[in-house]
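RECORD TYPE: inverse folding
INPUT: structure tokens
STRUCTURE:
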């Protein structure tokens, strides 16, 4: 068989195209499939029914004007309070995890593993039943105090690991320099290490704030008065009473109003930190 009758490896590769060309063809195929799926959804959907179920005009107006501002405010209060509790407790747990005292490390480890392994819903249910176990028990600023405590305990377990990683990411030379200036271990941790650690972990902290915002939707399990409703409970009750999903759609959009700017801030912070490195 002559050499001209057998395609060479380079000829076959040339026929297939370069890796960049093959990647471009695959990407184009993916775009075409996505466009076909979207077009099919647009053509097959009953848009009149979709608008009636998800965007009913009269129910949109009722949802926005009836109690949405109060539910939105309550969601922010629950989130900020829980984040503060979680941040303070998480910092203490992170320092305990790094302590030279074995008992502190064991306590912090058990706490972190327990609350990371238990669903937040169970923690809320447990806090809701505390008055049954301890008659006469009152939590200050209830229901806000109850939510801050329950959600703060859960978030502290996750924040502790984030803060610990940030502390360990601070160069040891910074600590040695602080100690050479005569600072005590506590002063060097408070004035040198923690400020740098929090700058490092600012994007993960913002992500945790977003997660707390969404977890605040579990507040309904402890039983709330109408004045204490958060977005999910408010939208759910209106949807149930009207047999329509429009209030839940509005509630979801309100969550996006909180989380999307924070997600954008996380991306900017990560890009800024990448440029700094």
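DESIGNED SEQUENCE:
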């Amino acid at each position: 068989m002559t050499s001209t009758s057998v395609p060479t490896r380079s000829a076959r590769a040339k026929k297939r195209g370069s890796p960049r060309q093959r990647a471009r063809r695959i990407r184009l195929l993916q775009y075409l499939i996505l466009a076909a799926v979207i077009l099919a959804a647009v053509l097959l959907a009953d848009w009149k029914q979709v608008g009636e179920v998800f965007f009913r005009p009269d129910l949109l107006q009722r949802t926005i004007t009836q109690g949405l501002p109060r539910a939105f405010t309550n969601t922010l209060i629950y989130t900020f309070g829980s984040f503060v509790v979680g941040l303070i407790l998480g910092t203490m747990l992170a320092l305990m995890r790094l302590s030279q005292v074995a008992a502190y490390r064991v306590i912090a480890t058990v706490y972190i593993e327990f609350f990371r392994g238990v669903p937040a819903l169970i923690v809320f249910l447990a806090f809701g039943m505390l008055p049954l176990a301890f008659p006469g028990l009152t939590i200050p600023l209830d229901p806000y105090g109850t939510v801050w405590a329950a959600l703060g305990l859960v978030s502290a377990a996750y924040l502790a690991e984030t803060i610990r990683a940030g502390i360990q990411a601070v160069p040891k030379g910074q600590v040695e320099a602080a100690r050479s200036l005569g600072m005590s271990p506590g002063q060097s941790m408070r004035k040198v290490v923690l400020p740098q650690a929090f700058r490092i972990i600012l994007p993960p902290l913002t992500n945790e704030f977003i997660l707390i915002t969404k977890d605040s939707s579990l507040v309904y399990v402890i039983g709330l008065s109408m004045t204490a409703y958060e977005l999910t409970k408010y939208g759910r009750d209106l949807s149930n009473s009207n047999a329509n999903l429009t209030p839940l759609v509005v509630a979801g959009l309100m969550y996006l109003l909180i989380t999307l700017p924070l997600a954008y801030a996380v991306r900017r912070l990560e890009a800024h930190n990448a440029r700094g490195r």
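NOTES: The radius of gyration is 27 Å.
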